[in-house]
Design a protein that fits this description.
mainly alpha, globular
């Protein structure tokens, strides 16, 4: 693993710890996760419910610059844009109008600075980064960054973190591991499995 990847992993670990101090409480994040899980179980889960094709492409490109792909999957591979689409239609519906207004301003500013490109997603990665440096202090970018991190680190069944990409980057393994006498009262909980070779 490269030094850059190690730095990214360290940064994400720090962000994961500090998310509790963000504008969303853990209870709100839990509700968002639940609502997103319900939406993710609906038919045709691989489609956007709120974002248009153009908006979805721009949001996906934006999130993939916040957490880019290198030797590990980034936000694009983790499906973070689907997580954003889901939560803006559920627990974070009160963010929707502000997010959409911010996205329109973001897209207009991008077209003004890059008249030869039809959209942010159509820019080369280098030009995307160049443009993002001009808007990285806006409320829209702050919201996008928080949503990207939440989508990258949430449980995969909630619409993001596809195949546990964010967890793998952090070195987190989603498994029940308990040592007696702790944990065995959860043996009837769905998904619980005692360690091999140990009595339950």
């Amino acid at each position: 693993m490269t030094d850059e990847s190690t730095s990214r992993r360290s940064a994400l670990k720090g962000i994961a710890v500090s998310l509790g101090l963000a504008s969303l409480s853990w209870s709100e994040l839990a509700r968002a996760a639940h609502d997103a899980h319900v939406a993710a179980q609906a038919p045709a889960t691989a489609t956007y419910k709120l974002l248009s094709a153009t908006d979805a492409a721009d949001v996906e490109a934006l999130t993939s610059q916040i957490i880019p792909s290198d030797d590990t999957p980034g936000a694009r591979e983790a499906g973070v844009s689907f997580f954003i689409d889901i939560v803006l239609g559920s627990i974070l519906a009160h963010w929707r109008s502000g997010f959409e207004a911010g996205l329109r301003e973001f897209q207009q500013a991008c077209r003004t600075r890059n008249p030869d490109a039809p959209s942010f997603a159509a820019l080369s990665p280098a030009r995307q980064v160049e443009f993002l440096r001009t808007v990285d202090t806006t409320q829209f970018f702050d919201q996008s960054r928080l949503l990207t991190l939440c989508g990258m680190l949430s449980m995969p069944k909630y619409g993001g973190n596809r195949d546990g990409a964010g967890w793998k980057m952090l070195g987190f393994e989603d498994q029940h591991v308990f040592d007696a006498p702790f944990g065995y009262y959860d043996r009837d909980y769905p998904g619980f499995a005692a360690e091999p070779g140990k009595q339950s």
